[in-house]
Amino acid sequence: MDPLDCSVCWNRYDLDRYRPRSLTCGHSLCSDCINRTIRGSNLYCPICRRQHERIVNSASDFPVNFTVQEMLRSQQHPAVPTGENMISVFEKSKLEVSESFVAQVMNFDAHIGQVKNVLNVTQVKKNAINEKIEPLMVQLKIVQKEEENLLEILNSGVQHRAEYDQVNEGLQDCSSESELRTIQKHVENVHNRVKDWFKKTELYIPIENHILPTPNVVFGGNVNVTSLRNLVHSKPGGVWCVLNRPEDAGDSWAKVSIRQEILLLHTLHSTPPIVDSSVSLIPYSDVRRLVDDSKATTFLEISVPGQHESKLIFLELQGFADRTVQFRLLCSGEMGVSYAGTFMIRKGEVGNAIVAGTRNDSIVKTLPGLLGTERPLYETQTLVTSGLLSAMEDITTEPTQFCIYGKHDFQQNEMRPMGRVVFGLETIQHLYADVENITGVKIIDCGLVLSL
């Protein structure tokens, strides 16, 4: 096919109606064919059927193929002829080279368009795989952390065993009262260090005299992650923690559950569970001590309009600023109120953030500020990144509201950081970018993460 002819209508290119233009896929069409192909501001290449990415209205939205155009001009305005209707041998050679070059360029543009199409398909596959990998990566992180802790415990245990051997050698060689007293002091020191070592192992190894409770019996004692996980798996009716409050306040109850092999301590509430043989009860304090408040991880469970399944978001808190402590207390429900049952408020008004923390029954009503309305002192500031959790600026009128950023803004510093999303970031980004009615998103539950 002649490269100076349109590959769709086969008309000769010119500088007017049939002016050559290049599509993003690499194919060239005349202006007339492009105008006839546009449908509702969209254009599909008639050769490879690829959709043009931007909104188009006419052929003028596409760049002119100047290579073809120059070839046309060279034919229409040849050099000074040596005779009537004749062109020089040089001009013929130049035309042949130009035609060959244009054919090469058009072939290259077509191939690079195909590469772009394959790349788009590959990126879709990659995103689908990442969605499946993320939950596994969270579980892998948990197991790796447990492995690191157990290796540290094992190494220190080997050192303690060597100390026992040293004491034994001293006892065998002891020949005086003074040497015996020295060995006794050494034994006491080793014993104290070993007691601390045993406490560390309790998080992973059930204690021999720690027997799981019989049904309907509230028990006390040492609870560790392993024994608690086994107990939850063995009780179809659930494991509940009870917090004994003053008589005028009444007791509170919190359920322990497992989601994706992660232990969750749900927020406290005043409604007791129905206790039967399938239920076990544990003192709240026995489970609560598994959470390190200096680096606590909380969770929010949200329901999104139009989606059948709820979504989990894990937030790792940082430091002990007043608002950070308050956020943790409002997730656990330990002060009598929680974020459970509240709705998202708005998005986009605080940088790139989603704002939450207000109940749906009133526009201005908020949960009570538990730690007062004085401005907390934040020792650090941080760049705004996707998933950053922060307190609101006006803590006098918005004492319990918080925001989670949905995208990066490296030009902005956040002066009130409280932590960041460590799981469920894609949910926050979806809420920020795609959910129009953000006030319909409800926090249906919240609490503390036990096994991270």
Task: Produce the secondary structure layout.
Layout: E1 20-22, E2 28-30, H1 31-37, H2 66-76, H3 89-173, H4 177-201, H5 225-234, E3 238-243, E4 252-259, E5 262-266, E6 279-283, H6 284-288, E7 297-303, E8 311-317, H7 322-332, E9 342-347, E10 353-358, E11 382-384, E12 388-391, E13 402-405, E14 409-414, E15 417-423, H8 425-434, E16 442-449
Parallel strand pairs: 3-6
Antiparallel strand pairs: 1-2, 3-4, 4-5, 5-16, 7-8, 7-16, 8-15, 9-10, 9-16, 10-13, 11-14, 12-13, 12-15
Helix pairs in contact: 2-3, 3-4
Number of strands: 16
Query: CATH class of the largest domain, anyone?
Result: Mainly Beta
Secondary-structure-derived class: alpha+beta
Order of helices and strands: EEHHHHHEEEEHEEHEEEEEEEHE
Beta-strand residue fraction: 15-25%
Report on the structure:
Strand 9 and strand 10 form a beta hairpin. Helix 3 (89-173) runs antiparallel to helix 4 (177-201). The chain is built from eight helices and 16 strands. The protein has four domains: 20-127, no CATH class; 137-201; 225-288, no CATH class; 293-449, Cyclophilin-like (Cyclophilin), CATH 2.40.100. It is an alpha+beta fold and 452 residues long. The radius of gyration is 35 Å and the shape is elongated. 36% of the residues lie in helices and 19% in strands. The protein has an eight-stranded antiparallel barrel with strand order 7-8-15-12-13-10-9-16. Strands 1-2 form a two-stranded antiparallel ribbon. A two-stranded antiparallel sheet has the order 11-14.
